[in-house]
Specification:
The chain is α/β, with parallel strands linked by helices. Helices cover about 30% and strands about 15% of the residues. α1 links the parallel β1 and β2. The longest helix has 19 residues. It binds NADP nicotinamide-adenine-dinucleotide phosphate.
């Protein structure tokens, strides 16, 4: 019985090396060169080709090597097997770093200071206290909750929005479409850590921008998206940045990726772009996490961090 590594867009070598180091007694196969597909019992995957996983008749568990599973749920032929997603403290910390960095870039007006420096200009801007800035975290799951806690510790006024009510000390939490307007109306900096599902696709559009607070310290709202590119309507965000309805943005995810060189977003005003690097998956940390789960599964213990296929995340 073997473990399959099927990753696209990343180098599979690091994952194979990590698995061999952590579980030297197990056979590790690299997609697509699998001699006998019948021997594969577990698959570690990132963006596998649609239909590929159904070619393994004895596959028992699918491990997504990212926290998001839209790369799997979009496969109409995905076998009806348990899908485990990565929840790992290393990945969570990396995401919180990126979110805090981006919130501070906008809160402390770092983009303006970078422009002043390029002009050799000594000029100071008004500085607000963090407690005057209302940060709204859309998606109060594993990543959103950690980022929200870190921002609250820095003194920001933090609220969260999720599908079902969440109780996080120090963070006011709203839930469901019925409370979305109230959440947006009280948000100066919107942090987006939602999964991409049929319900969330395109949620970051021009209408949402117009429901964000306009009376905050920055004179207009900011959107920070590290969820998935499919959450945003890129043309709406670009238009809102250019006509001033959005004061700034930080975008790590796009549809398609890579962001095409001719996308207007590259030079939209006050827009920070990073190439889907907010939280990279570390092969050593995440392989150790998967091997632990495989061992527990073989002892008859339940799998954890299972994806709910009907919810889509
Ligand atoms: N850019 C990167 O490098 C990177 C890296 C890792 C992950 N990500 C993205 O981050 C996302 C979040 O990861 P996670 O581990 O925090 O996921 P998670 O623990 O599953 O949390 C998802 C959150 O979104 C909420 N949600 C889902 N559908 C919703 C809807 N229709 N309306 C309102 N709220 C909704 C959930 O509500 P409930 O609490 O009610 O369930 C939950 O609070 C991933 O799906 C992935 O797309 C990006």
């Amino acid at each position: 019985m073997s473990i399959l590594v099927a990753v696209r867009g990343w180098s599979p070598e690091h994952w194979i090396e990590a698995l061999r180091a952590i579980a030297p007694d197990r056979r590790v196969e690299r997609a697509p060169d699998v001699a006998d597909p019948g021997t594969v019992r577990y698959a570690l995957v990132w963006k596998p080709q649609a239909g590929y996983l159904r070619t393994f008749p004895n596959l028992e568990v699918i491990f997504s090597l990212g926290a998001g599973v839209d790369h799997l749920t979009s496969d109409p032929e995905l076998p009806n097997l348990p899908v485990v997603r990565i929840v790992d403290p290393d990945l969570t910390r990396r995401m919180t770093e990126w979110i805090v960095l981006q919130v501070l870039i906008h809160h402390r007006q770092q983009l303006a200071y970078a422009r002043f420096q390029a002009e050799r200009r000594w000029h100071d801007l008004r500085q607000w206290s963090a407690s005057e800035m209302r940060v709204g975290v859309m998606g109060l799951g594993v990543l959103g909750t950690d980022a929200a806690r870190a921002l609250a510790r820095l003194g920001f006024h933090v609220s969260g929005w999720s599908r079902t009510p969440r109780h996080v000390p120090g963070i006011s939490s709203l839930a469901g479409l019925g409370q979305l307007d109230a959440f947006l109306a009280g948000t100066d900096i919107l942090v987006v850590l939602l999964p991409l599902t049929p319900d969330t696709r395109g949620i970051l559009d021009g209408r949402l921008v117009d429901r964000l607070a306009v009376d905050g310290p920055l004179g207009g709202p900011v959107i920070i998206n590290a969820g998935r590119g499919g959450l945003q309507v890129a043309s709406d965000l670009d238009a809102a940045l250019r006509d001033g309805r959005l004061r700034g943005a930080s975008l790590d995810v796009f549809e398609p990726e890579p962001l095409p060189a001719d996308s207007p977003l590259w030079d939209a005003p006050n827009c920070v772009i990073t190439p889907h690097v907010a939280a990279e998956s570390d092969p050593m940390a995440l392989s150790a996490n998967v091997v632990k789960q495989i061992e527990a599964f073989e002892r008859g213990e339940p799998l954890v961090n299972l994806v709910d296929r009907t919810r889509g995340y």
